[in-house]
Amino acid sequence: MMRFAAALVAGAATVALSTSAAFAAETLDAVKERGEVVCGVSTGLPGFSNPDESGQWSGIDVDVCRAVGAAVLGDADKVKFVPLTAKERFTALQSGEIDILSRNTTWTLTRDSSLGLNFAGVNYYDGQGFLVKKDLGVSSATELDGASVCIQAGTTTELNLADYFRFKGMEYSPVVFDTSDQTVQGFSAGRCDVLTSDQSQLYALRTKLDDPDSAMVLPEVISKEPLGPVVRQGDDQWFNIVKWTLFAQLNAEELGVTMDNVEDMKSSDNPSIKRLIGTDGDMGEKLGLAADWAANVVAQVGNYGEMFERNVGMDTPLQIARGLNALWTAGGIQYAPPIR
């Protein structure tokens, strides 16, 4: 029976990988023929991927897909957004339902090696933390022994939480929900003492409380959570397009190319800027795109810094400082290979 079960698991993995590869090889052609990029996003996380009352999506994860739309189709609005739960997200990508998954998803070895998927970079460096009500009277995660903890199913946070409490010799009671909205509602209703997730999500979910000031994020960060867009394995061209679209935004910020000045930069004598915006070299051709692919990205979506500040920066309700997500030239770890 054990050998039979193992064979079933291995067979399912093989089917998933082969299905993924079959869809992957046709991605760019399918996107061009369809006239839109199909992007998997969250069911609603302010600052990352969240719809407004009219159904218009915004957020840093949304802008990753809009940037790919600008690069491939010349129009950042040619994107269809598909809301997915944490449990649904990988299957939707493997099956070809979506072209890109851009849904606050952590890059791990297991996900990168056994699901038939490739992570195309990191658009947000994060770490898992804890959100508590201020009236709970705790100021550190080390004081959470015996706490009940709200957590979303199908995420890396489940294992991180178990590891942290076991390492600290503490006990906890998990209260598991399927979606982030259900998780924050459970926390708000008093179903648990603590809500755990990536810190970026905690700041976003806190804005959904009736009184956001009643809760605070504890200082401890218990994991590394590099979040980024994901594509299917088996299609190196599409993988390169998504990867270099993000790299183009990072390089644009480093070079001082913005939404406001990208047109003026077309007369720049800086070789790096000329290659970026397509006035010199054949960078677009190497990717199977138009020469001005990156110029379209910056003009319509912005460089990385503009994308960050617009969605999650200090002038937004989330008020997140750049921190690790600052460029390497400004004390952070965001660093892109050169376009040359």
Architecture overview:
- With 340 residues, the chain is an alpha/beta fold.
- It has 2 domains: 27-125 and 227-330, D-Maltodextrin-Binding Protein, domain 2 (3-Layer(aba) Sandwich), CATH 3.40.190; 128-223, D-Maltodextrin-Binding Protein, domain 2.
- It is 40% helix and 16% strand.
- The chain is built from 13 helices and 14 strands.
- Strands 10-9-11-8-12 form a 5-stranded mixed β-sheet, with helices on both faces. Strands 4-1-5 form a 3-stranded parallel β-sheet. A two-stranded antiparallel sheet has the order 2-3.
- Helix 3 (60-73) packs across helix 9 and helix 3 packs antiparallel against helix 12 (293-300).
- The longest helix has 23 residues, at 2-24.
- It starts with a helix and ends in a 28-residue tail after the last helix.
Summed up:
This protein is of the alpha/beta class and 340 residues long. It has helices at 2-24, 27-34, 60-73, 89-94, 109-114, 157-168, 180-188, 199-206, 236-255, 271-277, 283-287, 293-300, 304-312; strands at residues 37-41, 50-51, 57-58, 79-83, 100-101, 117-119, 124-126, 128-133, 147-152, 172-177, 194-198, 215-217, 225-227, 230-232. The protein starts with a helix and ends in a 28-residue tail after the last helix.
Order of adjacent strands in the largest pleated sheet: 10-9-11-8-12
Task: State the total count of DSSP E strands.
Answer: 14
Using the 3D structure, state the CATH architecture of the largest domain: 3-Layer(aba) Sandwich
CATH domain topology of the largest domain? D-Maltodextrin-Binding Protein, domain 2
Structural class: alpha/beta
Shape: globular
- The radius of gyration over CA amounts to 21 Å
Number of helices: 13
